[in-house]
Amino acid sequence: MSAPLKIIFAGTPEFAAASLQALLDQRQEKRYEIVAVYTQPDRPAGRGQKLVPSPVKQLALDHGLTVKQPLNFKEEADRAELASFNADIMIVAAYGLILPKAVLETPRLGCINVHASLLPRWRGAAPIHRALLAGDVQTGITIMQMDVGLDTGDMILKHTCDIKPSDTSASLHDRLAPLGGAALIAALDQIQAGTHTAEAQDNNLANYAHKLTKEEGNIDWTQPAAQIERQIRGLCPWPSAYTQTGAGVMKIHAASLVNDNDQSAPAGQVVLVSKEGVGIATGDGTLLITEVQFPGGKRIYVRDALNGKYQQTLGLGVMLGESV
């Protein structure tokens, strides 16, 4: 049996923790040795703003792994410490840092990335959300050999995942995270056996998955209902789609399309009130909103909002949007 691959793992959020867990699940096979885990520094969170470790750090500590948290790799000491682990390969999954060329070239086999898109479709920070916002019907995981570009490296392996009509960014994330772990192990097996191949990306097919902003959640009711429905799913749970009402900003967490050919109502007007939800006229079609959240409140069904103090806010003829 060949010697185990000495691995440095670099990642931060839950998505990355799933890939680290996949490696940990292989420990008994003794094919891989995790020599160090790199993750972002602890961040303040909650009302008390206490420092909270990342999901990757917590998982690593639970399994007795060495954890490192440099701010970046600009300091020679940090690069030297990375080299001291004498790793064969570095695995990067949603780490949150751009790695300089010197770091990419430090491990014997370089660095590979677990990316939540079928590259080159969505390069960048928010591939899951952008796939939903664009109306893609399929996405997946790409294991990529990293280079100095932004998700531009050669592709080693892909695993596909269908996007369901009901998917939110949260539900799609929860399917892609374990798929990323499975794809990682499959790619590592090929790399260790020397059977892997690397395919160059077609830059003409690339799109940039820009980092999300809260402003993207502001609903323009003159847009088609289908586009707004994707906006709601793609931005759920964060930063959330929202609109102005008489009771303040209302976040919309769930909605569905209504078969309605009546285009006489102005965009943003409430045209339907039922136990299922509230119908809003759009630039093309009607959107039935079913789950909302008002300032200071919890996520609730619209039928519950209509039974409470928001009955007038969501009544027939009410106009939603920036003009309120």
UniProtKB/TrEMBL annotation:
<dbReference type="InterPro" id="IPR005794">
    <property type="entry name" value="Fmt"/>
</dbReference>
<dbReference type="InterPro" id="IPR001555">
    <property type="entry name" value="GART_AS"/>
</dbReference>
<dbReference type="InterPro" id="IPR011034">
    <property type="entry name" value="Formyl_transferase-like_C_sf"/>
</dbReference>
<keyword id="KW-0648">Protein biosynthesis</keyword>
<dbReference type="GO" id="GO:0005829">
    <property type="term" value="C:cytosol"/>
</dbReference>
<dbReference type="InterPro" id="IPR044135">
    <property type="entry name" value="Met-tRNA-FMT_C"/>
</dbReference>
<dbReference type="InterPro" id="IPR041711">
    <property type="entry name" value="Met-tRNA-FMT_N"/>
</dbReference>
<dbReference type="GO" id="GO:0004479">
    <property type="term" value="F:methionyl-tRNA formyltransferase activity"/>
</dbReference>
<feature type="domain" description="Formyl transferase N-terminal">
    <location>
        <begin position="6"/>
        <end position="188"/>
    </location>
</feature>
<comment type="similarity">
    <text>Belongs to the Fmt family.</text>
</comment>
<comment type="function">
    <text>Attaches a formyl group to the free amino group of methionyl-tRNA(fMet). The formyl group appears to play a dual role in the initiator identity of N-formylmethionyl-tRNA by promoting its recognition by IF2 and preventing the misappropriation of this tRNA by the elongation apparatus.</text>
</comment>
<feature type="domain" description="Formyl transferase C-terminal">
    <location>
        <begin position="211"/>
        <end position="309"/>
    </location>
</feature>
<dbReference type="Pfam" id="PF02911">
    <property type="entry name" value="Formyl_trans_C"/>
</dbReference>
<dbReference type="InterPro" id="IPR005793">
    <property type="entry name" value="Formyl_trans_C"/>
</dbReference>
<keyword id="KW-0808">Transferase</keyword>
<feature type="binding site">
    <location>
        <begin position="117"/>
        <end position="120"/>
    </location>
    <ligand>
        <name>(6S)-5,6,7,8-tetrahydrofolate</name>
    </ligand>
</feature>
<dbReference type="InterPro" id="IPR002376">
    <property type="entry name" value="Formyl_transf_N"/>
</dbReference>
<protein>
    <recommendedName>
        <fullName>Methionyl-tRNA formyltransferase</fullName>
        <ecNumber>2.1.2.9</ecNumber>
    </recommendedName>
</protein>
<dbReference type="InterPro" id="IPR037022">
    <property type="entry name" value="Formyl_trans_C_sf"/>
</dbReference>
<dbReference type="Pfam" id="PF00551">
    <property type="entry name" value="Formyl_trans_N"/>
</dbReference>
<dbReference type="InterPro" id="IPR036477">
    <property type="entry name" value="Formyl_transf_N_sf"/>
</dbReference>
